[in-house]
Amino acid sequence: MHPEFLSQVKELVINKIRVSIGKSNLIEEVMSYSALAESKMIRAGLVFASSRTNKNLHEDSVITLASAVELMHTYSLIHDDLPCMDDDNLRRNQPSSHIKYGEANAVLSGDALQALAYEIIVNDLRMNPGEKVKTIKILSKACGKNGMVYGQYLDIQNENNKDVDKDMLDQIHNLKTGKLIECSVMLGQIGSDIKIDLFKEFASHIGLAFQITDDILDVTQTEEVLGKNKNSDIKNNKITYVDVLGLDGAKEKAKELTELSLDTLDRIDISGKDKLKNIAKYLISRQN
């Protein structure tokens, strides 16, 4: 991914999130603490990159959709770090929300971030009502009981399960991580009049490549570089792709998935795909 592209995305999304949260009470302070912390904003970048192939989505709405995805992602991280979940005390190079503000306020801020994601979609001035309904359907389905939440459930349920194989890992991470990545690509296609099946296929490949790379970085990088706790999966007795495939095998699988994603994009007869290709390549070359 070109640094200037990601920098532009961050600036636009951070400004939108800052204004949308406000600063009138403690819960808004807690929300801002996590949502405005330094992050890669890969999902927001995917919304923007996908929208470059879509002439029917206004730039203001792209900012709205990218911000909504990042608000949802931040909520998931806050809850993920809680003692009842993965019990991590470091996120985005700062103490996790519950360490800084207490568990109750962390839970409430996560709930509020999730609600705000839908609120800013409803308040968007450029999308028509039908497009807003479609957007909310895509986002809620990706994050709900058969998406990200269920993936987190399966992840927790399989702690201490030494029989987890690659198929189960794929299911867990297709839901827990991949669904929001797929959602990000799909939101960039709101209002588009082209078939989106290949975009979904592309997103599925990069979602798994992203998670495999995360597992690789967890055993090869320092906490300072990662910006979060190292060896969290080991602490929680979770099986990773490195456990199942080995370090070299995991690297090869991530590369294979990336190549599949690029091949899939090449099958889409539309201009403006370069940014999506850059992100796909970036996901396995990143250092955190």
Please supply descriptive tags for the structure shown above.
single chain; 288 residues; mainly alpha; two-stranded antiparallel ribbon; 2 strands; globular
Written description of the protein model:
The protein has helices at 3-21, 26-35, 42-51, 59-80, 97-101, 103-122, 129-143, 148-157, 166-187, 197-220, 223-226, 232-235, 241-245, 247-266, 274-285, and strands at residues 90-91, 94-95. The protein is mostly helical. It has a two-stranded antiparallel ribbon. A hairpin with a 2-residue loop joins strand 1 and strand 2. The radius of gyration is 18 Å and the shape is globular. The two termini are 14 Å apart. The model has no long low-confidence stretch (mean pLDDT 92).
Q: How many beta-strand elements?
A: 2
Mean pLDDT: 92
Low-confidence stretches: none
Biggest β-sheet strands, sense, barrel: 2 strands, antiparallel
Report the oligomer: single chain
Distance between the termini: 14 Å
Please state roughly what percent of the residues sit in beta strands, choosing from under 5%, 5-15%, 15-25%, 25-35%, 35-45% or over 45%.
under 5%
Q: In percent, how helical is the residue content?
A: over 70%
Number of helices: 15
Please tell me how large the radius of gyration is: 18 Å
What structural category do the secondary elements indicate? mainly alpha
The 3D shape can be described as: globular
SSE diagram, text form:
Layout: H1 3-21, H2 26-35, H3 42-51, H4 59-80, E1 90-91, E2 94-95, H5 97-101, H6 103-122, H7 129-143, H8 148-157, H9 166-187, H10 197-220, H11 223-226, H12 232-235, H13 241-245, H14 247-266, H15 274-285
Antiparallel strand pairs: 1-2
